[in-house]
Amino acid sequence: ARQRDGEKQSWRNIPIRAADDAYLAASTYDFKLIAEGYGPDPEDVWAALSRDPTLAVAGGGMVPTEAGGEEDWRPIQVEGLFYQDETMSPVTIEMREPRSGALSEVTLVGVLDRIHESQSTMFTSKGFVDGLVPYSVPITNYRFTVAEEVDQKETAQAIEKNLLEHGMETEVLEEVLEEEFAAGRSIFRLF
Hints:
It is a single chain. The chain is an alpha/beta fold. The protein has helices spanning 21-26, 42-51, 126-132, 152-162, 173-190; strands at 2-3, 16-19, 31-34, 55-58, 91-96, 103-112, 122-125. Strands 1, 2, 3, 4, 5, 6 and 7 form a seven-stranded mixed beta sheet that branches. A hairpin with a 6-residue loop joins strand 5 (91-96) and strand 6. The chain is globular and about 50 Å long.
């Protein structure tokens, strides 16, 4: 991937999360920025992605801070946009399918808050990915929302036990995020 009008034109590998309509409709991720004409609410952005497969959302880690110096770890750095900005315009990203070299474009219409597990991932519709690659891309990850009174760990274990023969592995997202935050806090305490 690369930014169409960006200064840096080298191709970079980027993780993409292709989401189906049900996932987009149920998403509760918070946004840091929403492009003009696609908000004002997160639900508006997810609905737009569901309607238009050429739209995408960037994880907050794909957008630099004004301080800079972070671009080395980013799969792609969106130029002309900073995480601290109050507004954004849509940004065109070129995507290249590695086997065929076929080109497609997506338009970034939002930047997610950095407080989630996919901060360096681009979200788009499954329809876009299906059109980009010359083969069917299976869905490999599923997300479940449980009622507040339901024990998440117990439910995850029950799902995994019942679907083990199909290779199902579960994890409680809240625990994953807490582990990532703890690792980050440990690193910051070193300095």
